[in-house]
Design a protein that fits this description.
The complex is a heterotrimer of chains A (261), B (325) and C (270). Chain A contains 10 helices and no strands. By secondary structure, chain A is an all-alpha fold. Chain B contains 11 helices and 14 strands. In chain B, the strands form 3 sheets. In chain B, strands 6-7-8-3-9-10 form a 6-stranded mixed β-sheet, with helices on both faces. In chain B, a hairpin with a 5-residue loop joins strand 1 and strand 2. Classes of the chains: A mainly alpha (261), B alpha/beta (325), C mainly alpha (270). The interface between A and C is medium-sized, with 29 and 33 residues.
Chain lengths: 261, 325, 270
């Protein structure tokens, strides 16, 4: 049960840090918010549940951004702080420490998303209805889990290479495009579809749209298939993350590079 | 681990080499041998000191023993566990206290810092909060426990470091320069706490470059220089290295580097250490000749104004200087 | 080096300031990051809005409008984000005080830091147009390249001036990061990048016209259609005006900050 204790302790510490400086969430909201408003303007002559698409997309982008930044910086923060050696010296496996942080970042991503939704709804005045709130919520929770797990993979990948910040900046835009946050991935070139489909949250947002809009067709596999893939992707990411962290831990002790930045 | 091991720490021919590369476009690789094959033991309940100049390999050694670094070659057992293979077992049972400002989460309270590390060490939930309160009491931070660490003074942060290093009730504690940067009172309190820990039966491996501290606290001292152990003995044993010499201590003004060089060139002089900054300069000359040599010293330093010149008994610091220069 | 900063002629201060900003940018970035910003970000930002517009309106003119607009907007990272953060970088790194206490002539110092970002911005836009035509099929057969080159140059200069002004505003605030973030992307909404400014509410439009890039997008599209420099002169002059105005305001703010900080005796405590 110490794994759970580590996970929860890490989750809690990460949230405490957020509450110590909540204003740092603002930069993470700006881009998705502006993109959402641009989308709403572009959609202005289209009929249908436009607001839903744009807002859902914006919220998802907010969650993605937080996951990426949070993961990329998860251990960088410890490096700057000088706490990394102490964290490494504990008997807890690094992967559980990062999983806790990643989960807290995903949850904060939800706060991001809600903030974007609130501002857009207030500014634009357009409300949208969700046809099936319970199914929507289930899809949302599983998407958060998938994002957290993906965050663990990112974090370990970033640790194996020093350019975490480069990758964080570099990945944000491509993921907004590839995950079909605001437009169907069918529009993208065929060769990119496998990439898009390998991202759990692509299926998650598809499921959320099914739950929100009964006339939605989307990827074409239906809500429950989406959820299944989402769940499977989470497991897959965790497995990859586990393995990568084992590699990281060995490398860190061999090369002693983690403490430099 | 069926039986209790004989020694708390055993180190055998431990070696650690670093590879560094410089430059962006034309990388040049350098090989640095930080630790060149050291061997020593630490007994249970002992306060063992590891002293040496900066860059001697103390920190590298401690990092290897605390499983933060794998050695390039050699073996070592901590509490009977191998430092390469049994990492988790060792980490559970040891505590780590590295000095300095960093290493704490500033934006949360002291109590939260302790709680986090207690969780990472897997301290059972039933014991955790009680132990945290006891530790805070022990280091005198109970009334500031719920304030953010960024509001703590340097001394308070160090006390929190100590509490953090004991959160898992370790039987062996590693301390790397625990009193560095502390004001005299805080340093004294820290040393008192360290002695208390030994009285409670804990084993401690301490690094420091304050010789008087090592002399006061340690039962045995290993002197490390340039990656190798050049001496290992009790403080009195080490002082025997310099029993044949006296120290001439000079307080002066106007001594220049050329004077020091001239002193060093004399065959009767073993070592010279000098602090030439400021108005009151001190020069310590180790020589077997004792007070006989004073006229020579006065002659060599004739260009300076000498306030005081006297012979002294050699200290551990002198022994140390003798060993590392 | 013998001479102190106060003895240097203005052009030397300008260039050394620029070199410092370049080094400062790279001291914590690596070339890989610069290349990401130059090559990767424009492609995907453009892709996002192009695909979004294809979803809404699959006509070629719709795509061309957005692609050209975004090709220009991608310079914001250099001219706005990087420049705006230059000053706060200096604040945090503690290099602002040494700069301010020199008797060096202020204006070249103020502007020189942005030199590299101007060049960087132009390179980014060129890459953007490359993507627009090669990847997203924008028809550039009728383009007046001289006119387009002038538009790109003026836009970068003017937007960098705008960035310097934002940086000066940032000196008064605890963090320029939020301003930098907002203005990095706001162009997408109000500078006629993805849709004409006329679509926006009337109360918002004056803000659009205060930003040089708004004129840039109009001029760039016209140049791609074949308009010459002389035909575009009025718009280009308006853009220069907006840029000059920003630099002027920014410079005043910079001097004002310096005076305020000197009175209070603290530069880095803001």
């Amino acid at each position: 049960m110490t794994k759970l204790q580590t996970f929860w302790g890490s989750f809690r510490m990460s949230l405490l840090h957020f509450f110590a400086d909540p204003q740092w969430i603002i930069p993470n909201i700006i881009a998705p918010f502006i993109f959402t408003v641009v989308a709403l303007v572009l959609f202005r002559n289209v009929s249908g549940s436009v607001a839903l698409y744009a807002v859902l997309g914006g919220g998802m982008m907010g969650m993605w951004g937080n996951t990426l930044y949070g993961s990329g910086f998860a251990l960088a923060f410890d490096r700057w702080n000088g706490t990394i050696e102490y964290v490494l010296a504990t008997p807890s496996r690094l992967v559980w420490i990062i999983a806790g942080r990643s989960a807290s970042n995903a949850v904060l991503g939800l706060v991001n998303a809600l903030a974007i939704v609130a501002v857009v709804v207030l500014a634009y005045g357009s409300m949208f209805a969700v046809a099936n709130p319970l199914l929507f919520l289930l899809a949302l929770i599983l998407t958060l889990a998938s994002l957290s797990a993906l965050g663990v993979v990112f974090c370990s990948a970033f640790l194996l290479s020093r350019s975490a910040q480069v990758m964080t900046n570099g990945l944000e835009m491509p993921i907004y495009v590839a995950s079909g946050s605001m437009f169907p991935i069918a529009l993208l070139p065929l060769w990119s579809h496998p990439l898009s489909l390998s991202l759990g949250p692509t299926w998650g947002i598809d499921a959320m749209r099914y739950a929100a809009d009964t006339s939605y067709t989307g990827l074409g596999f239906g809500y429950w298939t989406d959820l299944l893939v989402l769940f499977a992707s989470t497991i897959a990411y965790l497995a990859i993350g586990f393995w990568l962290f084992m590699v990281v831990e060995k490398k860190v002790r061999r090369d002693a590079t983690l403490t430099e930045y | 681990m069926a039986t209790r091991p004989e020694k708390a720490i055993t180190v055998s021919e431990l070696r650690r080499t670093y590879h560094t590369s410089k430059g962006i476009f034309r990388k040049s690789r350098q090989v640095v041998e930080a630790v060149k094959g050291i061997s020593f033991d630490v007994e249970f309940g002992e306060l063992f000191g590891l002293v040496g100049p900066n860059g001697a390999g103390k920190t590298t050694t401690i990092k290897m023993l605390t499983t933060l670094l794998t050695p390039t070659s050699g073996t070592s057992k901590v509490l009977g566990y191998d430092i390469v293979r049994d990492v988790v077992e060792i980490r559970r049972r040891i505590g780590i206290i590295f000095g300095g400002e960093r290493g704490l989460y500033y934006r949360v309270s002291g109590r939260e810092n302790l709680r986090y590390f207690a969780d990472l060490y897997g301290v059972p939930l039933s014991k955790r909060d009680k132990r945290i309160s006891e530790l805070l009491e022990m280091v005198g931070l109970s009334d500031r426990a719920d304030d953010k660490v960024e509001s703590y003074s340097r001394g308070m942060k160090q006390r929190l470091h100590i509490a953090k290093g004991l959160v898992n009730d370790p039987e062996l504690v590693f301390m790397d320069e625990p009193t560095i940067g502390l004001d005299p009172q805080a340093a004294r309190d820290t040393r008192a706490m360290i002695k208390q820990l030994v009285q409670k039966g804990k084993t401690i491996l301490l690094t420091t470059h304050y010789m008087f501290e090592a002399d006061e606290l340690c039962r045995r001292i290993g002197v490390i220089s340039n990656g190798e152990i050049v001496a290992l003995d009790t403080p009195d044993g080490l002082k025997r290295f310099v029993k044949d010499i006296s120290v001439i201590e000079v307080e002066a003004f106007g001594v220049v580097d050329a004077d020091i060089t001239a002193l060093r060139q004399r065959s009767e002089v073993k070592t010279v250490s000098a602090n030439l900054d400021g108005e009151r300069q001190t020069v310590r000359i180790q020589t077997p000749k004792g007070s006989e040599f004073i006229p020579e010293v006065t002659k060599i330093l004739s260009g300076a104004k000498i306030f005081d010149i006297r012979t002294k008994e050699p200290t551990l610091e002198d022994a140390y200087l003798r060993l590392v220069t | 080096m013998g001479m102190t900063l106060g003895d240097w002629p203005p052009y030397r201060i300008f260039w050394s300031s620029a070199k410092f900003a370049f080094k400062a940018l790279f001291s914590w970035l690596r070339p890989a990051m610069w290349l990401t910003q130059l090559l990767v970000l424009p492609l995907f930002q453009m892709a996002f809005f192009v695909y979004l517009s294809r979803f809404v309106n699959p006509t070629a003119t719709g795509v061309a409008f957005i692609a050209v607009g975004n090709a220009l907007q991608v310079a914001s990272f250099s001219s706005i984000f990087a420049v705006c953060n230059l000053t706060s970088e200096e604040k945090w790194q503690g290099t602002l005080t040494p700069l301010i206490v020199t008797p060096a002539s202020r204006f070249p110092l103020f502007v020189g830091r942005a030199m590299f970002q101007i060049l960087n911005g132009m390179a980014t836009i060129v890459v953007g147009f490359f993507y627009a035509s090669m990847v997203f099929g924008v028809d550039m057969s009728r383009t007046d390249f001289l006119a387009l080159a002038v538009v790109i140059l003026v836009t970068c200069l003017a937007m960098t001036g705008f960035g310097l002004m934002l940086g000066s505003v940032g000196l008064y605030m605890r963090t320029a990061m939020i301003i930098a973030n907002i203005f990095l992307f706001i162009g997408l909404l109000i500078c006629g990048v993805n849709f004409p400014v006329t679509v926006l509410p009337t109360w918002l439009q004056p803000l659009s016209y205060a930003i040089p890039m708004t004129y840039g997008t109009i001029a760039a599209r016209a140049a791609v259609q074949g308009s010459s420099v002389t035909e575009l002169a009025p718009v280009i002059l308006q853009e220069i005006g907006a840029g000059a105005g920003s630099i002027f305001v920014g410079y005043l703010l910079f001097l004002g900050f310096e005076a305020l900080a000197r009175r209070r005796g603290a530069f880095e405590e803001f």
